[in-house]
Automatic annotation (TrEMBL):
The keyword Oxidoreductase does not apply. It is found in: Membrane. Residues 7-167 form the Glycosyltransferase 2-like domain. Gene3D superfamilies: Spore Coat Polysaccharide Biosynthesis Protein SpsA, Chain A. GO terms for cellular component: plasma membrane. InterPro entries: Glyco_trans_2-like, Glycosyltransferase_2, Nucleotide-diphossugar_trans. Pfam families: Glycos_transf_2 (PF00535). Keywords: Glycosyltransferase, Membrane, Transferase, Transmembrane, Transmembrane helix. It is a multi-pass membrane protein. GO terms for molecular function: glycosyltransferase activity. The keyword Transferase applies. The lineage of its organism: Bacteria, Bacillati, Bacillota, Bacilli, Lactobacillales. This is Glycosyltransferase. The chain crosses the membrane at residues 236-257, 269-293.
Amino acid sequence: MKKGKLCIVVPCYNEQQVLPKSEPIFKKVIERLIGDHQVAETSQVVFVDDGSTDKTWLLIKQYSNEEHVSGLKLSRNFGHQAAIFAGMSAVSDADMVVTIDSDLQDDPNVIIKMVAKYYEGAQVVYGVRNNRQTDSRFKRISAKIFYKLMNCLGVKMIPDAADFRLLSHQAVVTLINYPERNLFLRGLVPLIGFPSAKVYYKRTERVAGKSKYPLRKMINLALDGITSFSIVPIRLIMNLGLLIVLIALILLIYTFIQNAKGNTVSGWSSLMISIWALGGVQLICISIIGEYVGKIFKEVKKRPRYTIEKDLYHKNNAD
Ligand code: UDP
Ligand code: MG
């Protein structure tokens, strides 16, 4: 059987402390797979510099002088999802594309198992973490709530599968043909279909440096995930509106009855409370609808999802 070409796409944002540790390990995985005749000689690790402001690009350039290593430089920081997408699009000629974080939190040796699953016929292989001990308590709980919420909203996602996965050539080509600007790969990948498999691994601590995912970016990613994949929130607003109208009707009837009985309703406070409460509900509802309108605004502009400044993989602008 013909050995397939494997490309390992590694997004990097200000990872000068991490790369000297992780680059040799990624390379070793490629070399081992080549040595075992599992993948083609042309297989590579492709680092994507997501607009780093430190020495990340210098390091990547230096590594790309070695065999089986190359890199891309984006023109600015486009974010983790866009960096992965840029890498996958650039190496879409490969037979297998693995995406993995640069910080060694995902075990690179699991790639060997992913490749085995590919040869067994899987076009999509999810890396699923079977522990979360190394994450903070907050991250653990928030992730659990997020996956539950997404499930309730009808978005198909593989729980605890982050962006460590293998995609076949056909799967990558299908994925990059999805035209949407809002990238939430965890939600998109299950949509493309194809036979899939899972491999389990233990997620470890970051080898060096700090997380590039502050709370702000995490909330943005979660909001993107919800609003790009589900219109359930808008439907909920409609139901809420109907419920409030119903309550108002009941109150109206009640007031008439009381009036007929000769009881005058004094309720100044209940009136004020309902004005404030309804005002609040309306503002929340408008903001949810606004979130969707914002999404549409972004989509119709059709701006590029990323811009490549330098491409050592195809040797474009590769000085
Ligand atoms: N990353 C990126 N662009 C960003 C933020 C992060 O390319 O804007 C990369 C980062 O260098 C790392 C991966 O995405 O390789 C995951 O980020 P990180 O480890 O900081 O996230 P965490 O594991 O804390 O969720
Ligand atoms: Mg990490």
